[in-house]
Amino acid sequence: MVLERIYLRPLEEKDLERVRMLSGDPDCSWATRPITYPESVQSASSWLDEHITMTKKGKSVSLAVVLRDQDLFIGSVLLFLEPLHQRAEIGCWIGRPYWSRGYGTEACAGAIHHGFEVLRLHKVSAYCVSTNTGSLKMLAKLGMKWEGCLREHLKIRGCFEDLLVYGLLAEERTTAGF
Q1: Is residue 50 in some structural domain?
Q2: How many beta carbons lie within 10 A of that of residue 25, not counting itself?
Q3: Bridge partners for 160 per DSSP
Q4: Closest CA to 131 of 152, 112, 110, 106
Q5: What is the pLDDT of residue 98?
Q6: What CATH number is given to the structural domain containing 59?
Q7: What distance in Å separates the CA atoms of residue 100 and residue 140, rounded to the nearest whole number?
Q8: pTM as predicted
Q9: Whole-angstrom Cα distance, residue 22 to residue 97?
Q10: Nearest 5°: CA angle at 64, between 59 and 67?
Q11: Across the 178 residues of the chain, what is the mean pLDDT of every consecutive 10-residue run?
């Protein structure tokens, strides 16, 4: 799958400065889990090291999202692998200056395509806080199906939030454009 405005590549140590620049946004970190997003500038280095190591060990496919025309890191997309069950959980974060431009959707589409075509996954799942409208719109664009709600599953900023569960099966990928 050729992506138009971005390309995906493995995370590298050279990404650290950009990860630091884009991390720690309170409006991003509340909506994702710490494993998906570096919650602070101080955690950026350990976050990056952890994802590079997880990829080397075959536990994830952790990819940098890079603007094609500027060769500029703007976020990451991650597939957390469960090989025994031929499935993965997808997670994505895009730095705030690049929100609402479709980069997350494009990155996730590329990662899902890789999961089904290269890794031969049977299913890709996603979890989203019910109040994260941007991610909910993205999941709909990706053709992911609503599977359920984990009621008041996470405590965020002192309030309990519902966590919504979505999934896409390999056999559904043609209708989703993958």
Answers
A1: yes
A2: 18
A3: 155
A4: 152
A5: 95
A6: 3.40.630.30
A7: 15
A8: 0.90
A9: 9
A10: 160
A11: 91 94 69 58 87 95 96 96 97 92 96 96 95 91 96 88 95 74
| Phi/psi-derived region of residue 23, left when phi > 0, alpha when psi is between -120 and 50, beta in every other case | beta
Residue 146: closest CA among 162, 159, 160:
162
The candidate with the shortest Cα–Cα distance to 174, out of 108, 105, 113, 92, is: 113
Task: Give backbone dihedrals phi and psi of 36, rounded to 5 degrees, phi first.
Answer: -85, -35
**168 lies in a domain?**
yes
Q: Is residue 1 part of a domain?
A: no
HEC letters along 104-167? HHHHHHHHHHHHHHCCCCCEEEEEEECCCHHHHHHHHHCCCEEEEEEEEEEEECCEEEEEEEEE
Give the count of domains, the chain.
Answer: 1
Residue 103 is encoded by which pair of tokens? Answer: 């980069």
Could you report the per-residue pLDDT of 117-150, keeping only the tens digit for each? 999 999 999 999 898 888 899 999 999 999 999 9
